[in-house]
Amino acid sequence: MKVLLTREVAGLGIPGDVVEVKDGYARNYLLPRKLGVVPTPHELARFGQLRSQYEAELADRHTQAQALAEKLAGVELLFTRRVHDADKLYASVRPQDVAKEIADRFGVKIDPERIRMETVDTLGEHQAEIQLYEDITATVKLIVTPAA
């Protein structure tokens, strides 16, 4: 069955794409959730305009992500944690902590799932890689110091 996508569906397409899917997938998933419609001439014309708006939005997202990557390049985020023997932290630094620090400093909300880092449970310097957009990443330095 052919379906005109009204929203982006991962692995399938973007708004305005006409895709061929199995009948059950279209009837039971795409159409009831309003992720797609039957491609009539009226709907094709309507979503042709939507597609151009969506592509402009994607270009805008890309430029915003590029600007944020430049802003985050070389940034050092300081975390203070309580430690016990052998400089081990009582509470590790998690991606949620990094996302909150970036939001506090730069006013940009980043999903913690987009932050790739090893477990930070010791004092010192560590790295975190942030996936800002499809092909745009930024690396920040995490500095963990003991609480006084």
How many individual helices? 3
CATH superfamily of the largest domain: Ribosomal protein L9, C-terminal domain
> Which topology of the largest domain does CATH recognise?
Ribosomal Protein L9, domain 2
Class derived from helix and strand content: alpha+beta
**So what's the overall shape?**
elongated
List the quaternary state of the chains.
single chain
Give, in order, the helices and strands.
EEHEHEEEHEEEE
CATH architecture of the largest domain: Roll
Number of strands: 10
What is the percent of helical residues? 25-40%
Overall pLDDT metric: 90
Going across the major beta sheet, what is the strand order? 4-10-9-7
Count of separate structural domains: 2
| Main sheet summary | 4 strands, mixed
Please compute the radius of gyration using only Cα atoms. 22 Å
Reading off the top of the CATH hierarchy, the class of the largest domain is best stated as Alpha Beta
Query: First CA to last CA: what distance?
Result: 65 Å
Beta-strand fraction estimate: 25-35%
In terms of per-residue confidence, which ranges show pLDDT below 50 for 5 or more consecutive residues? none
How is the secondary structure organized here?
Elements lengths: L1 E4 L12 E3 L2 H8 L5 E2 L3 H32 L3 E6 L1 E2 L3 E6 L1 H12 L8 E3 L2 E3 L1 E10 L2 E11 L2
Parallel strand pairs: 4-10
Antiparallel strand pairs: 1-2, 1-3, 5-6, 6-8, 7-9, 9-10
